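Curious: why this fold?
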Amino acid sequence: MRQDSRGKWSISTHLKITAALRQLACGYSPDALDEYLQMSERVARESLLNFTECIIVLYTNDYLREPDTPLFNSMLVEDMPDIPYHVNSVEYKRGYYLADGIYLTWVSFVKAFSSVVDEKRVYFSKKQAGARKDIERTFGILQGRCHILQQPARAYEVNHMKRLMYTCIILHSIIIEDNSYNIVENDWVYEPMVNMQNTWFKRCDARNRRARELRDREVYEGLRADLVQHLWSN
């Protein structure tokens, strides 16, 4: 306890930070800190939310890359550069994400086959699922550090849950850097530049064209077939 500027006794900043970290790292509920820190549930909850807000304000630019919302906004910008690559001697212009069956059938998603009829597809589905598991394990590591991610979230508003997730990611990145485990520098972030000299109609046409390309079923099936053959041959 300490005296504030009004001369009244209040909980110190150190105790509030301790309460926030215990909730993040150990998954304690706010009312579980009443006896240990002599802190009410309301103060513990507010301490957590204030802590997450401070972490995001101070460290977002250094440790958290701005997400695309929605994810494919940047792909619809006309000045976004192509990323050409070859699969099975066929050139493609867009990268892709590994996904399961709930995602849309777009060229930027490579999904496993819902039914496999030959050895090539069986092999591809195993490789695709294995690569997705690596990504899921990464989130498992984050859950291991921040046990609050394993707890029910009904008590939090959507905006609060988003701030909690961002804070956990930032703290995880800080720990990785402090332990010298980071393998790349993320100083460069692509920011699409819109050519303002183009008319509004031209920009709309370009956006619609890219949207059609993104939903091209023929390219989607072709990429997946080429990946199946590439994996089978190598």
Q: What stands out?
A: The radius of gyration is 24 Å. The chain has seven helices and six strands. Residues 119-145 form the longest helix (27 residues). The first strand starts at residue 2 and ends at 3.
